[in-house]
Every structure is written in C-alpha cells, then in structure tokens.
Specification:
This protein is of the alpha/beta class and about 375 residues long. The protein contains 10 helices and 13 strands.
C-alpha cells in the first residue's frame, strides 16, 4: 500500500482513480497545513508558551518525513562540539516507537540501558555510537532536558528531530535535507511528504544537504533552496562508509571484507536505494536489495524471506544498516554484517560549519 501511495503522489501512477485519490489526499493536506500554521502562530504570539532550558539547545530536524540523515547529522554535531568546545552534552530524542512511557535513559555515557525495542531504533543507535554522551528519550523534551542537566550537569543539549518541537526554545536549528529526495513532492502530508511548508526553511539557522554525491540534479536543489531561504547557509555532505561489523561476534572488519563478493543488502529504512548505492561503490560483486518498511521488526517470516532471497541471488554475505543490526543475526549459512557510515562534509565545508556551530554555542 505504501508503494502504491508513493507512486500516486509522485505522479508516477496516472489515471482516473489515482487522480481521485490525489484530490482526497490534497484536501487532507490543506487541513493539515491549517493546523501547522495555527500551531506556529499560537507559539509565536505566546498563547502557547515556549520554555527555555538553562543550557544551550541545538536542534537537528527536517521538513520532509522519512530519512533525511538526521541521525548521522546528530552524531556529527556531537563530535564537533566535543572537539571544539568544553560543553558537557546530552542527546534528547522523542523515542519514536519506543515502548517506554515518559522519559528514560537509553545510555548514561558508559552503558546501554535499553534495548532497541524499548528505546526505538534511532535513540538506540545514538547510544551505541556516542559512548561518552548520555542519550535520553521522552516526548516532553523540556522535562527530559532538565533531567539531563540535573544528572550530568549538561551545558548543551542536542535535539534529535527537534524542528517541530516548538515548545522548547533552541539556540540553533539545523535542517537536514536528503538531496536525492529534497522537497517531499512539494505537498504536505498526506498528499506529499512535507511535514510543514518549505517556506518554513527560513526559520532554520543552517541547512545541511545529505547524499549530494547520489543526487542527479544538485544544481536544481541548490537553486530552489536559494529561492526559498536565501539568507540561510547551506552545507553539503555525503555518507562515507567507515567499517563493517559482524553481528555474531561484534568484530570490526575492513571494507575490503566484501570486495568482489555478491551482496544481499537488507534494510528497513526510508531510503533503501541510497544504502544499496553506498554498497555498490565499495568494489563489491553483484548487490541485490531487499527492503522492508522503515523501522521493520523482522519477524520470522521476514527472516525466511531474507534467507530465500539470499539463495536466489547467489549472495555470499548479507549486509544491513546499523539501525537494523540489533534486530538481525546470522541467517542460515549467511554471515550478516552491518555497515558503519559517517557524515562527511565536502571540501572545507566542515571548517565553516564548525565556526557557525561554535559561535552559537558560545553566544550568551
């Protein structure tokens, strides 16, 4: 059903019934737009109160639903702040699909305290990838932030997916945009994938384009951003593969482990084609892609589907994402590896990004 809807809203599927469906979706989108505008207006005039934490707050968010690269961007921001400031930090996430009610600590900076099922995929990944930084979940980011300040004396909070969390004041808003799927088909949900109008990009302090190496019309993307938010600096980045890890042993391996090998790429993420493209750039043999819906849980039926697809495609190794890794293990006789990636700025972009980030972090 999701694949059918995307083919309708993208314009790929044409005809009478798709046209009727698009009209119905457009009507709901107009209602959604009204709600989004009303909500921002109520916060802007003070009817709904914006709360301020007694520390720096850096938000990494998006305007397009789905994977825009927020999680790798959060990791990059934390790394830069660690290297260029002396601020104690914590990461706060809403905990999408978490089994925990209220707030909870995913990682205390030393140990992972919740499973991926309990914490949610992205917070668990952040906890595993940021070993020295506490990671907390909770729908009320203000209360969760106060908890981080009390327990770890945090001087900076990094919000994962914070652009729509208007209840909490931010010192800097970073918007990530997937260059391969940048504008959500130019319609709000559910007619398109926009969480709010593209014009709201003007409220951002930084726009971070991801996957620019996979974008076939980058000049068009740059041009539209210059029209929509001309005063907001735009940075460009790619996802650089770093290493592989065995899901059985936890052993880290070099990227040459899969050189020349036939690969079955398995993932449950918003942009599976991007993952397959990254693997294809690593001098592998044939790469077959088997994708599932975002945040897939991999029940026994899915595991059997993976095993059959691996046999059918003559795969020698199964490779998955870091987000999917906690939910998978060896499948039949096939080893399963997870690919570690890192957000990398192009050229001297990182130096300029750090300068802006550090300026906001030092601002009183």
């Amino acid at each position: 059903m999701i694949g059918y809807l995307e083919s309708v809203i993208s314009g790929e599927r044409r005809g009478f019934m798709p046209a009727i469906l698009k009209c119905k979706l457009a009507l709901i989108s107009w209602i959604y737009l009204g709600a989004v505008k009303l909500r921002r207006w109520l916060y802007s005039i003070g009817i709904w109160r914006v709360r301020h934490l007694p520390c720096k707050v850096i938000s990494v968010g998006n305007v397009v639903a789905g994977g825009s690269g927020k999680t790798p961007a959060v990791m990059a921001v934390v790394r830069m702040l660690s290297e260029h400031t002396d601020l104690n930090m914590a990461v706060l996430s809403r905990g999408y699909r978490s089994k925990i009610r209220g707030s909870a600590v995913v990682s205390d900076g030393d140990s992972i305290l919740l499973t991926a099922v309990e914490a949610g995929d992205e917070p668990h990944l952040l906890g595993r990838s940021l070993p020295d930084v506490p990671v907390l979940i909770g729908k009320d980011r203000f209360e969760t932030g106060l908890k981080a300040i009390r327990e770890w004396n945090c001087k900076a909070i990094v919000l994962d997916d914070g652009f729509q969390h208007l209840r909490l004041a931010r010192d800097i808003d970073i918007i990530t945009i997937d260059a391969t799927r940048p504008f959500g088909f130019d319609h709000l949900l559910p007619r398109g994938y926009l969480r709010e109008p593209l014009s709201n990009l003007r409220y951002a302090d930084i726009i971070l384009l991801t996957r620019v190496d996979q974008c076939k019309n980058l000049d068009m993307v740059r041009g539209r951003l210059a029209e929509i938010a001309p005063s907001v600096p735009v940075f460009e980045s790619i996802y650089e593969p770093r290493s592989l890890r065995s899901l059985d042993t936890g052993q880290d391996m070099g990227l040459d482990t899969i050189r020349g090998k036939n690969i079955l790429a398995v993932c449950g993420i918003a942009n599976p084609a991007s993952f397959a493209d990254i693997l294809g750039s690593l001098d592998t043999g044939k790469v077959e892609l088997l994708s599932f819906p975002d945040h897939h849980k991999y029940p026994p039926g899915s595991i059997e589907k993976i095993r059959l697809k691996a046999a059918e495609s003559d795969a020698e190794i199964i490779v998955t994402t870091e987000k999917d890794a906690p939910k998978l293990k060896s499948i039949g006789n096939y080893p399963v590896l997870s690919l570690t990636i890192e957000l990398k700025f192009l050229g001297t972009e990182e130096k300029r990004f750090v300068e802006i980030l550090s300026k906001f972090a030092r601002r009183s």
